[in-house]
């Protein structure tokens, strides 16, 4: 298995300065976009099927709704501000949908993408069925389940070691780099790494619901992450990864 191989395609114009490059990881990239906003892009792409510039027009629609504060944030609450630059919003949304195999590079929906849109139309983008279908896709096609297993093994082998979330994230990053599972950043040893794993914690906790929060942090001092294994196994039921 080639863990450093990127998931899905990435158009060069969507690479955003100052943000982690998706090619650094083997799991699907996510930043900023909520389930509601990704649904808006997918739904519009489905309605534009067969027309031109499907991806660009779908992303433009999702961004217009976001900028007008007519969307929900990742926690499911109405957006109160729209501070994400348009280029970042569109780029991050497009990359995530590609990495999760929900649409092609031109915006044409995959079979899974059409199925997810169907669930969203039936139950709503804030519904449990939509969130569960999205979470299953993220764990399997987005390879987040592979990353979950690596994090679990990392913390299992180092109980009681890290007192803070930052210490945990930095040690995890170093461990993955040393094992060749994460592409090393040349400047990290001198400049530090403050953002690694923060987006994944939000993605797993808020978007997928597969880790539990303890107080204000998802990282339990001396333990690591509190994985919701019953939910994870339910989401993966019937898949090949469970044998």
Note down, in words, how this protein is organized.
The protein is mostly helical and 243 residues long. It has 2 domains: 114 residues, no CATH class; 99 residues. Strand 2 and strand 3 form a beta hairpin. The N terminus is likely disordered.
In short:
By secondary structure, this protein is mainly α. The chain is 48% helix and 3% strand.
Q: Give a count of the beta strands, DSSP E runs of length 2 or more.
A: 3
Q: What is the alpha-carbon Rg in Å? A: 18 Å
Ranges with pLDDT <50 over ≥5 residues?
Answer: 1-22
Strand order of the largest sheet: 1-3-2
Helix content: 40-55%
Listing every helix as H and every strand as E from the N terminus to the C terminus, the arrangement reads HHHHHHHHHEEEH
Biggest sheet character: 3 strands, antiparallel
Whole-number average pLDDT?
86
What's the helix count?
A: 10
Record keyword descriptors for this entry.
243 residues; mainly alpha; single chain; disordered N terminus; globular; 10 helices; three-stranded antiparallel sheet
List the helices and strands and how they pair.
Elements: H1 35-47, H2 54-67, H3 86-99, H4 111-123, H5 128-140, H6 144-156, H7 165-178, H8 188-191, H9 198-208, E1 211-212, E2 219-220, E3 224-227, H10 229-236
Antiparallel strand pairs: 1-3, 2-3
Helix pairs in contact: 1-2, 1-4, 2-3, 4-5
């Amino acid at each position: 298995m080639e863990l450093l191989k990127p998931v899905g395609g990435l158009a060069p114009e969507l690479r955003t300065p100052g943000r982690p490059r998706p090619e650094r990881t083997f799991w699907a990239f996510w930043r900023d976009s909520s389930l509601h906003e990704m649904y808006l892009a997918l739904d519009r792409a489905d309605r534009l099927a067969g027309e031109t510039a499907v991806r660009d027009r779908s992303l433009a629609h999702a961004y217009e709704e976001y900028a007008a504060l007519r969307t929900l944030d990742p926690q499911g609450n109405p957006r109160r501000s729209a501070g994400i630059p348009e280029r970042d919003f569109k780029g991050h949304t497009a990359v995530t949908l590609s990495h999760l195999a929900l649409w092609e590079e031109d915006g044409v929906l995959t079979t899974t993408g059409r199925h997810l849109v169907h669930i969203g139309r039936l139950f709503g983008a804030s519904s449990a069925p939509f969130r569960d279908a999205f979470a299953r896709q993220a764990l399997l096609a987005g390879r987040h389940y592979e990353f979950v297993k690596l994090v679990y093994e990392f913390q299992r082998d180092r109980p009681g070691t890290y007192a803070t979330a930052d210490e945990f994230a930095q040690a995890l990053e170093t461990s993955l780099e040393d094992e060749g599972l994460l592409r090393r950043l040349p400047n990290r040893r001198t400049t530090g790494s403050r953002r690694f794993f923060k987006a994944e914690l939000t993605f797993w906790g808020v978007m997928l619901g597969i880790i539990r929060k303890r107080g204000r942090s998802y990282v339990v001092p001396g333990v690591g992450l509190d994985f919701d294994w019953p939910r994870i196994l339910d989401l993966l039921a019937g898949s090949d990864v469970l044998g």
